[in-house]
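Lab meeting, item 3. Inverse folding demo.
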């Protein structure tokens, strides 16, 4: 692994599970700076680090200040074939900004990302992506200085549950039920993969890898609640999903729709809107006062318009940056016509 150029007295190493708590404190100091809330949870972080295919020793870097406290952190997600679309994320302690820690970690991310060039299909385009809050202009400038280009915007959309939620209107023959871990994992994952093939930037990973990740979520994540995972069916086939959570670190009154997807032949029949209304009503019954979700700001399937029809509005924006590590044939979904 590359040696990092750090200020005098600073050191670096891979993250350890024991770092979850001090790093979470650092992440929350940064989210307090940006949004005035604590967005992160140490138990969630430790569980995420144990996702199948993710390797703390290979995929993370912690920079420690002379005091021994974390000054910065970076990670790269490259867990599945075909290794052509890599994700990265990083954070610097607000009190350590301006000392070169961030630029050093961005360089480390690129070095880690370039390892994918040895395993990605020959002739394929390989890119490294990272998103930052639109409020964090210095982070955006750092990425641009490091050769990244802003290519997309992602939105967090929200609705206040301050009025009665409309009753769901289901197309004929479509019913909704909750997830059964004993029998639904494979058909649910297959439906999600089918739905998300039409999402910009999607790249197909091996089915077994997807199953391993979703199995980890079901068995290990403390926020998992099968009674908040809603499956829309027709003749026994899953045609759409809305996977929700009632545990958000930043706001105990907030519910979250983590995944919403409708399989292509079933779109434009009102199923997505019905699932949202169903989810809003159930989260409201559980005492949630608001619901949020994340979405590609230029969704190929028109998801933003759907959420607006459901009464949601854009609350936060993130800018998606990308750095091309190798030119070639793009294996990711770029349009509905070529997906």
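The presenter then showed the designed sequence:
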């Amino acid at each position: 692994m590359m040696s990092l150029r750090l200020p005098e007295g600073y050191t670096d190493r891979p993250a350890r599970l024991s770092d979850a708590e001090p790093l979470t404190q650092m992440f929350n100091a940064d989210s307090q700076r940006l949004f005035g809330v604590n967005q992160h949870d140490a138990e969630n972080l430790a569980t995420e680090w144990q996702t199948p295919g993710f390797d703390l020793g290979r995929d993370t870097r912690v920079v420690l200040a002379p005091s021994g406290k974390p000054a910065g952190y970076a990670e790269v997600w490259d867990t599945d074939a075909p290794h052509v679309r890599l994700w990265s994320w990083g954070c610097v302690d607000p009190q350590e900004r301006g000392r070169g820690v961030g630029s050093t970690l961005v360089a480390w991310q690129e070095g880690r990302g370039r390892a994918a060039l040895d395993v990605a299909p020959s002739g394929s385009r390989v890119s490294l992506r990272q998103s930052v809050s639109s409020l964090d202009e210095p982070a955006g400038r750092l990425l641009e200085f490091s050769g990244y280009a802003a290519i997309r915007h992602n939105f967090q959309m929200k609705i206040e549950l301050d009025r009665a939620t409309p009753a769901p209107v289901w197309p004929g023959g479509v019913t909704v039920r909750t997830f059964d871990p004993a029998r639904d994992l494979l058909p649910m994952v297959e439906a999600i993969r089918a739905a998300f093939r039409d999402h910009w930037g999607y790249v197909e990973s091996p089915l077994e890898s997807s199953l391993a990740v979703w199995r980890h979520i079901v068995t290990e994540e403390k926020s998992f609640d099968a009674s908040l995972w809603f499956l829309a069916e027709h003749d026994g086939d899953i045609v759409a999903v809305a996977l929700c959570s009632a545990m958000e670190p930043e706001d105990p009154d907030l519910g979250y729709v983590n995944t919403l997807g409708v399989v292509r032949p079933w779109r434009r029949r009102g199923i997505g809107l019905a699932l949202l209304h169903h989810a809003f009503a159930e989260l409201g019954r559980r005492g949630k006062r608001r619901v949020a979700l994340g979405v590609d700001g230029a969704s190929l399937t028109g998801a933003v318009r759907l959420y607006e029809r459901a009464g949601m509005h854009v609350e936060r924006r993130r800018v998606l940056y990308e750095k091309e590590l190798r030119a070639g044939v793009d294996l990711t979904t770029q349009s509905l016509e070529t997906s």
